[in-house]
Specification:
single chain; 341 residues; mainly alpha; 3-stranded parallel sheet; 52% helix; globular; binds adenosine-5'-triphosphate; binds magnesium ion
């Protein structure tokens, strides 16, 4: 069976950008491949403090991150679906160390997160931030994962994982690691031409980001629904005066049309056709504000209905499975590098 594996960091409250661009496609894949794949959803909690966070919230946010997977529609009754915390599977950190020793320093230095996040937090550039992509390689290679649904910002890290695996297989035998599919095959697997990109409500030239400090730029999944509707009503648009889908000249309006389509599970072309030629931006905003409010009310009710105890039980199952698979792979690697007979 092939393995699909994915994780979303819980450093900040996720937004509808994360929900529509990452959660929904991943959940759809988990349904499509419910019977032909192992489906691993994990919370990369060891990755969450490569940049500074509020540690008093980390444990609660981890549990909440798992509730979000479930509320978004992940089928936890499917025996092929596994949910676990990275920190509860010690093989991740152990394999990371071994992979570190087979990763040229220069190659690791070229990774985008280190450069970008390092520039954002010049006082807090840690060895952890530098090492993060190699831990990510361990996350993937321990499970012989073939497909890792990712946003476009993460493909360079996937390429690093592939390079490490190819290098180690050449040295220690081709059966050591499964090489994950390359970027082109990953995107095709997700049925996408390219990754989705929900825009900031304040500056639609930019993407919506959960770490943005401007609350008005983003709709967070725990926003008060009425408050979120108001953010849509005050979203930046343009002065063209006619509703058209044109990401270059009317990115704000196009973003609203995209959100409206995705939240209602409708084809974007149908939504564009509904609004073609209309001139009231207010009407469109009202409609999208309604959709956002309903989505949040419904999603938050689903999250609230999931108990911590349910999450604990699901994690226990998932972590037992993950430890079994990961330890077997770690054992194989330890043997290959000469740590075991
Ligand atoms: P941060 O600001 O902390 O980088 P982020 O909002 O960019 O947060 P990530 O944790 O970097 O979120 O990414 C999680 C997943 O969500 C990735 O698969 C990423 O590609 C996707 N994603 C992030 N922002 C958007 C967006 N605006 N539209 C669609 N997908 C997005
Ligand atoms: Mg990001």
């Amino acid at each position: 069976m092939q393995t699909i594996l994915t994780g979303v960091r819980v450093n900040e409250e996720p937004t509808i950008g994360n929900f529509l661009g990452a959660y929904t496609p991943m959940i759809n894949l988990s349904h499509e491949h419910a019977h032909d794949s192992q489906i691993n959803f994990f919370v990369p909690d060891l990755h969450s403090f490569t940049t500074p966070i509020d540690h008093s919230q980390l444990y609660a946010n981890t549990i909440k991150g798992i509730k979000y997977y479930i509320a978004a529609g992940l089928d936890t009754d499917n025996p092929n679906v596994h949910i676990y915390r990275q920190s509860r599977v010690p093989a991740h950190a152990e394999l990371c160390w071994i992979l570190d020793c087979f990763t040229p320093f220069g190659e690791a230095s070229r990774m985008p997160q280190f450069k970008e996040k390092g520039a954002e937090h010049p006082d807090a550039v840690t060895v952890g931030l530098f090492n993060y992509p190699i831990l990510m390689a361990a996350d993937i290679l321990l499970y012989d994962a073939n497909y890792i649904p990712l946003g476009e910002d993460q493909f360079q890290h996937l390429e690093l994982a592939r390079n490490i695996a190819i290098r180690m297989n050449n040295k220690f035998g081709q059966e050591l690691f499964t090489i994950p599919a390359d970027e082109r095959a990953q995107v095709k697997f997700m049925h996408l031409e390219k990754g989705l990109r929900i825009r900031s409500l304040v500056d639609p030239a930019k993407k919506m980001s959960k770490s943005s400090e401007n609350e008005r730029s983003k709709i967070s999944l725990n926003d008060n629904p009425q408050h979120a509707a108001k953010k849509i009503m005050s979203a930046t648009t343009d002065s063209e005066g006619v509703i058209r889908f044109d990401m270059i000249n009317q990115p704000g309006i196009s973003n609203l049309l995209t959100i409206e389509a995705l939240l209602n599970n409708r084809d974007i072309q149908d939504v564009i056709a509904d609004w073609a030629g209309q001139t009231s931006y207010g009407d469109l905003k009202h409609k999208v504000a309604d959709s956002v409010q309903h989505f949040l009310e419904d999603f938050q009710a689903k999250v609230a209905a999931i108990s911590d105890a349910e999450v604990e039980a699901i994690m226990q199952r998932g972590e037992a499975y993950a430890n079994e698979v990961a330890n077997a792979k770690l054992h194989q690697v330890q043997k290959a590098v000469g740590l075991r007979k």
